[in-house]
Amino acid sequence: MCHIQKEPKAIKVGDDHFELNVSEKDFAHIQRHFSKYTERDTAIRQLDVPKSPIWLNMTVRAIRNYQDNVSSRLGNRCVFDPSCSHYAEIAFRNHGFFQGIKLTLNRLWRCRGENGGIDELI
């Protein structure tokens, strides 16, 4: 049996710094647990809310309202990176309203522990 050596991944929690020897899938889940957001989540979160089209403005605002007021109360449980709500924002931004709905519903359907990991939109 061949074991592949994983590169340690660093995480900072407050003033503490940890190096973890875990898979990408597990690291994203651990990082979200301690830091609230992964690096991919943070990159998406830093995008400006678009002013137009109006449907996209309202959709992004609704997603961010969910992230700030609902998701934080439910706990950071998403097993994917980026989280399902951040994925949804990118789906709407890059693929339009109807395809964004389709991609988001498909992602939510797959959001189970055994399916987690890195899940980028094309």
UniProtKB/TrEMBL annotation:
NCBIfam families on file: membrane protein insertion efficiency factor YidD (TIGR00278)
Pfam families (alphabetical): YidD
Protein name, entry field: Putative membrane protein insertion efficiency factor
Species this protein is from: Dyadobacter psychrophilus
Signal peptide span: none
Domain of life, source organism: Bacteria
